Amino acid sequence: MTGHIEPILGRYVHVDIDGEINRIYFEENGTGIPLVCLHTAGSDARQWRHLLTDEEFTRQFRIIAFDLPWHGKSNPPDSRYNTEYRLTTAGYTAIIRAFCAALSLDRPVVMGCSIGGRIVLNLAIDHAREFRALIGLEAADFQQPWYDTAWLNRPDIHGGEVCAALVSGLIAPQGPEAARNETLFGYKQGGPGVFKGDLYFYRVDGDLRGRTGRIDVRQCPLYLLTGEYDFSCTPEDTLRTAASIEGVKAVVMEQLGHFPMSENPAQFRRYIAPVLREIIAQQDNQRGAGS
């Protein structure tokens, strides 16, 4: 008997971030426009496996998903093992830009979810010309915290179980049971204090209120898509943010929660497919105009 081998290729790239080498794990598949995918807080790039194996998308996009340092198969930098992990806006932005530069990506599309969606907004504010398009899933300029991060890294509690329990209600009820379990299993495997450290960015350092009005979608198209069942980044949060950005395209996704790409890949595909096709069309139009 032979097994089915998926076309996803996993590798490591050594990336200089703020003067220190980080060994970052990434997976990729496809050819064409580079599409870099950012995972949610406390999880890793396995959330994107369904997109990575989509034959239609990988014919026109080189889809790349990487584990942030401290997450999944990307270890912390050598000098940081015995320090508290805290993700910051500046640090997160530097990681993404350095990763794209290390792979020599030419104006990639970046799509991020949750904390990845928030940082996409910061990329649109400060670095729009470096990207072909930006896609924020479950993204808003700020959300009021609804959780106590003190529970997320204590010696008397199983951190992974608590993290998974905390986010379990963010998954829409229509999602397949297997996809729900897989999404939560990723949270059960997070490193000590990693989810808490990511939420420092999400609830403290990454407040973008008052800044999103600077986004110019003429420099880089911006798409915001949020699940109707998300009570962390609510549809109202996303639509409020979109109202401050002239020309942004915002959509509320039915039957989806906070983890659309992993909790219900088929339903998510109905919403992301038109966006990716529009990006392809924009590139074709630009080529036609230049010929």
Structure write-up:
The protein is α/β, with parallel strands linked by helices and 291 residues long. The protein has a single domain, classed as Alpha/Beta hydrolase fold, catalytic domain (Rossmann fold), CATH 3.40.50. Helix content is 37%, strand content 18%. The chain is built from ten helices and eight strands. It has helices at residues 49-52, 55-58, 89-102, 115-126, 159-168, 177-188, 194-205, 235-243, 260-263, 265-290; strands spanning 9-17, 20-29, 33-38, 61-66, 109-113, 133-137, 222-227, 249-253. Strands 1-2-4-3-5-6-7-8 form an eight-stranded mixed sheet, sandwiched between helices. Strand 7, helix 8 and strand 8 form a beta-alpha-beta unit. Helix 5 (159-168) runs antiparallel to helix 6 (177-188). The radius of gyration is 18 Å and the shape is globular. The termini are far apart.
Structure in a nutshell:
The protein is an alpha/beta fold and 291 residues long. It is built from ten helices and eight strands. The mean pLDDT is 95.
Task: Name its key features.
single chain; 291 residues; alpha/beta; Rossmann fold; 8-stranded mixed β-sheet; 10 helices; 8 strands; 37% helix; 18% strand
Topology:
Elements: E1 9-17, E2 20-29, E3 33-38, H1 49-52, H2 55-58, E4 61-66, H3 89-102, E5 109-113, H4 115-126, E6 133-137, H5 159-168, H6 177-188, H7 194-205, E7 222-227, H8 235-243, E8 249-253, H9 260-263, H10 265-290
Parallel strand pairs: 3-4, 3-5, 5-6, 6-7, 7-8
Antiparallel strand pairs: 1-2, 2-4
Helix pairs in contact: 5-6
